[in-house]
């Protein structure tokens, strides 16, 4: 009896662990103490089988924090490493000095703090300076296979520049390339085989746009003409570019796009969107394809999409007499979508199968309240832009939870996740409605993971 029981126990434990090892784009992971991870605009280094994530506490003080993880899912908070209002901090090691360094933007200059230990304490190493005399903003860092480190940044708010750092990572040796007049920000670089890729977003402050990518065989160029990194119209899945994490596994090297989904109303509530990239070996085309949830085996480098069960919105029940209705939608699942869902008329999906534990549920919606297409900071509608619909979700009649749904684009179905504690069996029902007297996002379908 006993061995059988323990076998069952260990099996169910491993199932549980697998369920918890998901990366869910559009969420804020909790650290091992149960607190929200605050590491925006940051970067990750992989040392001694541990991932170290440095980032900043946006919306308060831009303090620099470091988290560590063995698997990119379980994160331990090591606290504030440096407190000098650094934005977009990145970590880099110098073999010549044996020191770890946090580099980032302070004002319009580069700030560098050093430590003999990756987990600090860090102290300022140089007086912040302007590389080659330019106004320095939006900084990214890339370390090449040969140990040379490069920064990519917005120079004078107009040109992206790639410059090589000195071996001690305290000064610059030379400019490698300048992307003239493209006004890009949030830049990052990765390398796949012998090809370098550089990305950036357009200058629309915290509003999201269609980010672009270039490739080259040498950091000095020639660089390709830009193309979009995600399907046009998704505004890079409503994120801004920030960093590329390369996971060199035994079977595969996987590059992960790390973006920030900025929440304008409360910037500290911004979420993280990490998506694995596909790199076409022949064309060098790069795409960040949406995944509701996935896991990555950091040993093999393989990405495994999570398996879920789909429920179509048009199969749900609308409040009788309400204004919601099923509309035709060529780009939607089943070519149908439920629209005009106001607080007076909700949509309920019944017979949802649950496991009796918290599960991720993704809501696939369209919200075309905002702009159709890309935008410029000078756009007159910038100030009045409505960026989200405010939906509520109630599981089995419980207190409704808030589900913000940023504007998408005509025909573009986007997805936002919510964790719900479904009861075991097929008796769950999810009621989808709008907050106050607003209108909920048009619902295409949900997927329960
Ligand atoms: C990684 O391991 C080496 C060898 O044990 C050690 O010298 C180094 O300090 C470690 N680095 C970090 C960041 O833990
Ligand atoms: C950077 O920009 C500010 C304001 O736009 C300006 O006052 C300053 O002179 C600029 N600095 C450099 C180094 O270009
Ligand atoms: C990149 O170009 C520079 C000169 O522009 C050259 O010195 C260097 O060898 C090139 N690197 C590679 C990997 O081809
Ligand atoms: C931000 O998050 C806090 C804590 O979860 C929440 O109370 C607040 O309503 C959120 N603000 C917005 C605008 O979403
Ligand atoms: C949408 O709902 C509102 C009430 O919330 C109603 O006045 C309007 O007629 C509805 N639109 C359509 C096309 O049914
Ligand atoms: C929704 O219902 C409330 C109260 O029943 C009513 O006052 C309001 O006019 C309704 N709104 C719409 C848009 O039908
Ligand atoms: C949703 O809530 C935000 C923040 O409260 C607000 O700015 C926005 O106008 C709301 N959206 C709609 C469609 O009412
Ligand atoms: C989820 O619900 C089950 C009962 O269905 C309960 O035993 C469990 O404690 C709940 N878990 C959380 C995290 O709320």
Q: Largest sheet, order of strands side by side?
A: 24-27-32-29-30
Instruction: Flag low-confidence runs.
Output: 1-19
What is the correct CATH architecture of the largest domain? 5 Propeller
The set of bound ligands, ions and cofactors reads: 2-acetamido-2-deoxy-beta-D-glucopyranose
pLDDT averaged over residues: 91
Percentage of residues in strands: over 45%
Features:
449 residues, Tachylectin-2, Chain A, 2 domains, five-stranded antiparallel beta sheet, four-stranded antiparallel beta sheet, 33 strands, 5% helix, 48% strand
What's the arrangement of secondary structure elements?
Elements: H1 2-20, E1 40-47, E2 50-56, E3 64-69, E4 76-82, E5 87-94, E6 99-106, E7 109-115, E8 123-124, E9 136-143, E10 149-155, E11 159-165, E12 172-179, E13 184-192, E14 195-202, E15 212-216, E16 227-228, H2 235-238, E17 240-248, E18 253-261, E19 271-279, E20 286-288, E21 294-296, E22 303-305, E23 309-312, E24 317-318, E25 325-328, E26 336-339, E27 347-354, E28 357-366, E29 388-395, E30 401-406, E31 414-422, E32 425-434, E33 442-448
Antiparallel strand pairs: 1-2, 2-3, 3-4, 5-6, 6-7, 7-8, 9-10, 10-11, 11-12, 13-14, 14-15, 15-16, 17-18, 18-19, 19-20, 21-22, 23-33, 24-27, 25-26, 27-32, 28-31, 28-33, 29-30, 29-32
């Amino acid at each position: 009896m006993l061995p059988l029981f323990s076998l069952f126990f260990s099996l169910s434990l491993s199932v549980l662990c697998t369920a918890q090892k998901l990366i869910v784009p559009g969420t804020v992971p909790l650290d091992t103490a149960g607190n929200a991870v605050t590491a925006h605009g940051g970067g990750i280094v992989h040392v001694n089988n541990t991932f170290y994530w440095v980032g900043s506490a946006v919306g308060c003080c831009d303090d620099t924090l470091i988290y560590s993880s063995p698997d990119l899912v379980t994160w331990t908070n090591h606290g504030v490493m440096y407190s000098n209002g650094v934005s977009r901090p990145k970590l880099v090691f110098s073999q010549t000095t044996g020191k770890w360094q946090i580099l980032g933007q302070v004002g319009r200059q580069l700030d560098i703090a050093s430590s003999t230990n990756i987990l600090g304490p860090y102290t300022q190493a140089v007086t912040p300076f302007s590389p080659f005399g330019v106004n320095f903003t939006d900084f990214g860092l890339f370390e090449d296979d040969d140990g040379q480190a490069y920064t990519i940044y917005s120079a004078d708010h107009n040109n992206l520049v790639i410059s090589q750092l000195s071996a001690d990572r305290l000064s610059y040796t030379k400019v490698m390339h300048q992307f003239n007049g493209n006004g890009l920000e949030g830049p990052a670089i990765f390398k796949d085989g012998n090809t370098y890729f550089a990305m950036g977003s357009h200058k629309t402050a915290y509003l999201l746009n269609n980010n672009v990518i270039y490739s080259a065989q040498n950091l000095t160029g020639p660089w390709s003409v830009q193309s979009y990194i995600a399907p046009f119209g998704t505004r890079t899945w409503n994120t801004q570019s920030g960093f590329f994490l390369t996971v060199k596994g035994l079977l595969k090297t996987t590059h992960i796009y790390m973006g920030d989904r900025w929440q304008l109303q409360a910037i500290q509530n911004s979420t993280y969107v990490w998506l694995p990239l596909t790199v076409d070996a022949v064309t060098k085309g790069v795409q960040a394809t949406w995944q509701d949830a996935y896991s990555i085996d950091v040993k093999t480098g393989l990405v495994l999409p999570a398996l879920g069960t789909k429920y179509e919105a048009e199969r749900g029940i609308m409040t009788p007499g309400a204004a919601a209705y099923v509309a035709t939608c060529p780009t939607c699942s089943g070519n149908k979508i439920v629209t005009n869902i106001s607080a007076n008329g909700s949509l309920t999906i019944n017979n949802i199968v649950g496991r009796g534990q918290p599960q991720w549920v993704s809501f696939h919606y369209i919200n075309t309240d905002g702009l159709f297409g890309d935008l410029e900071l000078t756009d007159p509608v910038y100030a009045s832009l409505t960026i989200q619909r405010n939906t509520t979700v109630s599981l089995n009649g419980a207190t409704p939870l808030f589900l913000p749904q940023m504007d998408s684009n005509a025909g573009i179905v986007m997805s936002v996740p919510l964790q719900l504690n479904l009861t075991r069996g097929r008796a769950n029902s999810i009621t989808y409605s709008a907050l106050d007297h607003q209108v909920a996002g048009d619902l295409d379908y949900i997927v329960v993971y």
